[in-house]
Specification:
CATH superfamily: NAD(P)-binding Rossmann-like Domain
Protein name: Epimerase family protein SDR39U1
InterPro entries: DUF1731, Epimerase_deHydtase, NAD(P)-bd_dom_sf
Bound molecules: NADP nicotinamide-adenine-dinucleotide phosphate
Largest sheet: 7 strands, parallel
Strand content: 5-15%
Number of domains: 1
Pfam families: DUF1731, Epimerase
Strand order of the largest sheet: 3-2-1-4-5-7-8
């Protein structure tokens, strides 16, 4: 299939989500080429991309690159914030420009952003029709990150934006450090890929069940066979991560995957219990 249909170019395909996604694509017979800062087989560099453009036979382009915002070893300095920004906005822009220049356009450009584009609220419920807003550094980042990916759509390349909630998994992301209020059950494939060729626009990448931090912590503890968890005080998170970053863990939004469900997406782990059971499975 990969030789006939072409391959998928995945920015940040070496990461936590990117590795799982690339494995899924390969298991379906697609070729995968990763854009990475590190050399390796089936990889190109960001400089290669800018200088040589899209590799021949690229049928789809996906960007999953981004400096880990919650890296506890990195202080929230202006320099680090710039890395966080550039690693998302500039990589998305490089891929968008390569698509614009390509003679043979890929069928689809998929970019990720975060539910951080929705203002935390204890009452508001957001779906994909809700407008993103700029109210802090992370929301401005999400806004710009989504925006720079939109250019190829003007030339008819289908653009899908996944506004992802926190991704739970054994191999990376926040689960390694902390217990968090939101989760995304990594979805299984839905029917045949060719049924989904009309998907475009924003999709909320969250599971249909909304849970609070407390509910998540309780369920996760139960899955780990622990009787209770000691709550992490907010001031400790503020101290360790700085308030601007800690907000990602201490505040939350109620986000509903309305369009995602309307497209018929089937979740492999639709509720918090099944997601937690999968995480702790050794
Ligand atoms: N995990 C979550 O819960 C979550 C939630 C919402 C949104 N997202 C977004 O989804 C994307 C993937 O998340 P993830 O958890 O898979 O991330 P990750 O594993 O921390 O990193 C993804 C990849 O980004 C590349 N990268 C890291 N720093 C970079 C830099 N300074 N410049 C260019 N590339 C850099 C790395 O690839 P190389 O080392 O190969 O260059 C890395 O493998 C990120 O943009 C993230 O913000 C994640």
């Amino acid at each position: 299939m990969s030789n006939l249909a072409g391959s998928v170019l995945v920015g940040g395909g070496s990461g936590f989500i990117g590795t799982a996604f690339s494995q899924l694509l390969r298991s379906k017979g697609y070729g995968v080429l990763i854009v990475s800062r590190m050399p390796g087989p089936q990889r190109i560099s960001w400089t290669d991309l800018v200088e040589n453009g899209l590799p021949a036979n690229t049928m789809a382009v996906v960007n999953l690159a981004g400096q880990n915002v919650l890296d506890p070893t990195r202080r929230w300095t202006p320099g680090f914030k710039q890395n966080v920004w550039n690693s998302r906005v500039n990589t998305t822009q490089s891929l968008a420009q390569a698509i614009l220049k390509a003679q043979n356009k890929p069928k689809v450009f998929v970019t990720i952003s975060g539910v951080g584009i929705y203002q935390p609220s204890s009452t508001a419920e957001y779906n994909e029709d809700s407008q993103g807003k700029k109210f802090d550094f992370l929301s401005e980042l999400c806004y710009e990150w989504e925006n720079v990916g939109k250019m190829p759509a003007h030339l008819g390349v289908r653009h899908v934006i996944i506004r992802s909630g926190v991704v739970l998994g054994k191999k990376g992301g926040m689960i390694r450090h902390l217990y968090l209020p939101f989760y995304l059950g990594l979805g299984g494939p839905v029917g045949k890929g060719d049924q989904k060729e009309d998907v475009r626009g924003v999709l909320n990448g969250v599971a249909p069940q909304i849970v609070t931090n407390k509910e998540f912590a309780k369920t996760f503890a139960k899955a780990l066979w622990r009787p209770a968890l000691i709550p992490i005080p907010e001031y400790a998170l503020n101290l360790a991560f700085s308030e601007e970053r800690a907000k990602m863990m201490t505040e939350g939004q109620k986000v509903v995957p309305k369009r995602t469900l309307a497209y018929g997406f089937q979740y492999k782990y639709p509720n918090i219990e099944s997601a937690c059971r999968e995480i702790v499975k050794s």
